[in-house]
Amino acid sequence: MNQKTPVGFIGPRNAELLEGPALTRARLNRDYLMSLTAENLLRPYLMEAGLWGYSGSVGTTVGEAAIDGPETWHWGWESPTSELRGHILGHWLSAASCLATSDEEVRARANHIVEELVRCQDANGGQWVAGIPREHMSRIVQGKDVWAPQYTVHKILEGLWDMYAVAGSAAALDLLVGFADWFVQWTDPMSRAQLDDVLDVETGGMLEVWANLYGETGESKYAALMSRYDRPRFFDRLLAGEDVLTNRHANTQIPEVLGAARAWEVTGERRWRDIVEAFWVQAVGLRGTYCTGGSTSGEVWQPVQVTQSRLHRVQEHCTVYNMMRLAQILYSWTGEKTYADYWERNLVNGIFGQQNSKTGMVTYFLPLAPGSEKQWGSRTNDFWCCHGTLLQAHSHHATAAVQRDENGLRISQFIPSVTRWDDVAGASVTIRIQQDPLGVVVLGQSVTPRGLNAIQRLVPDLPVERPDQMVFDIEVSPDRTTRFAVRLRIPEWVQTVIRVSCAGEELAYVDDEGWAVVDRVWSAGDVIRVELPTGVRAVPAVDDPGAVSFEDGPYVLAGMTSQRVTVEPAIEGDLSTVLAPDETRTHNWWNAGTYRTTRTPDIRFVPLSDVTDGTYTVYFPIESTAPLV
């Protein structure tokens, strides 16, 4: 098969999570999303529209204290004096648009917020609808200092688009069109040189919004906006093969490239796609990544093939989320497995690793230096950009699992979920992915009724020791018997042959460049079992083969120590024997990724994504001539 085969993604209406690590994280996120009240989210918008104010009391002179005093407000980047105020509502709407397809409580609040934004737009004269004043835009043109107004405004524009495109809100589209027309008029008199200067101040994903509107309406004014938001100072140098990333602000550039990707999709102009592909080569292919999948440190791109001198402020959460979006887009264009592998690595080590598994809060960076600690944000006193991408990142997991291509369906992410596809070889097909916690390891597993029942019975037998494999049962249920191919991604971390079976009988499959292809006649209720062998690997840093991280399956392991100490294997020449299983069982479930060094110093290892408190180290020096993974 030609690897460059377009792949179709399903929308959130036809995909839902089942019990597993992704659902656990999504529930935490949903709780946080709904803890943010409409009143607080809307406050900057109502204030800017003259529809809200605060004097400290109910009356004009002496009166009762106001019940919505400052102690109840959002602070940090959302405070009334912050030049980024209002950004979080856009992220909130984008996240809510996905949940609103199946969650009535979320849908009702999101629709109420859109209605209130209509009031704000009307009060502002029919176009402007933001939490910051229009004057901030003038300051960009005048060359005066101002903190990223277009970045801030982009968030509400994108949130409105998602409320329309995903949740079906016609009112959100009307709001967006009115606001977009303000930008048509604002940029109309600017020369190319003026536009280039304006776009040098962080614009976020404005280009993507204009591309979406052009794709939806076909109106020439939005094509003109796309052209105006082209970034020749950045894009032309990318196309020339220059390194225009090193030490530059990553989350300025990634959203601009996401805009180029969308521009390619709605126009078919090859230059846009060339920009995206050239960027990926520079950001990932040539640069290399940390073991967790990120390519940035301290908000900027690290130099090409450099990691070990920049371990302290690795991979801002926003960059992880946005690069995963870009990987998914490139995967949809090409079907190439490398993008799906990249997405998985960043999900389990970045997105999961940067969300507190107890509180649901986010850490801005994921430090990897010796003696690192994760610094968690607060619920209402920080509102970093990463609080926004936290909300969005955990709202999309279900749609990543199963896609359609010209030959059938493909399982690109082994995320417990149910996905429903129409018109696959003339049938409607439901794919149900589940992970059995009794006989295999599941990250973040805890007590379950099934597990409690299993430890009280003698049948069936349970494994004696923790299994070194991940096992998934995938039910393929077409509404009529039909033939098509199911392609199963063989993850990059699998070191031996995977096993695929149905009803206990091993199935033959074709290994097509890292995809296990099972082409057969399917009937309702067919279940295939996929066994993915795991095991500890020592993986060298891209710039220092004498420094390794340890991984178990897709999970990067963290040594719970503040020291960068040399580790040695129990068997000379075999780095897989540096670690031995430790604390493998808790009551009725297996603990994932728990190990301890086999020789001194005594260090306990756990999945980096499970770490919430304490100091840890990720890269360790080795003194061995053993071959590395």
Structural write-up:
The chain is 35% helix and 18% strand. It is of the alpha+beta class and 629 residues long. α2 (38-48) packs parallel to α4 (104-123), α7 (170-187) packs across α10 and α9 (206-217) runs parallel beside α12 (250-267). It is globular, with a radius of gyration of 25 Å. The mean pLDDT is 94.
List key phrases describing it.
7-stranded antiparallel beta sheet; 17 helices; 629 residues; alpha+beta
Number of strands: 23
Q: Total helix count?
A: 17
How would you sum up the global shape? globular
Radius of gyration: 25 Å
Overall mean pLDDT score?
94
Oligomer: single chain
How would you characterize the largest beta sheet? Answer: 7 strands, antiparallel
* Global structural class: alpha+beta
- The neighbouring-strand order within the major sheet is 1-6-7-8-14-10-11
How far apart the termini lie comes to 28 Å
Beta percentage is 15-25%
Give the helix level as a range of percent: 25-40%
Brief synopsis:
With 629 residues, the protein is of the alpha+beta class. The protein contains 17 helices and 23 strands.
Give the helices and strands, then pairings.
Elements: E1 15-17, H1 21-35, H2 38-48, H3 87-99, H4 104-123, H5 135-141, H6 149-165, H7 170-187, H8 192-199, H9 206-217, H10 220-228, H11 232-239, H12 250-267, H13 270-285, E2 296-297, E3 300-301, H14 317-334, H15 337-351, H16 385-393, E4 402-405, E5 408-411, E6 417-424, E7 427-435, H17 449-454, E8 469-478, E9 482-489, E10 499-502, E11 505-506, E12 510-512, E13 515-522, E14 526-533, E15 536-541, E16 544-552, E17 555-559, E18 579-581, E19 585-586, E20 589-590, E21 595-597, E22 604-607, E23 620-621
Helix pairs in contact: 2-4, 3-6, 3-16, 4-7, 6-7, 6-9, 7-10, 9-10, 9-12, 11-13, 12-13, 12-14, 14-15, 14-16
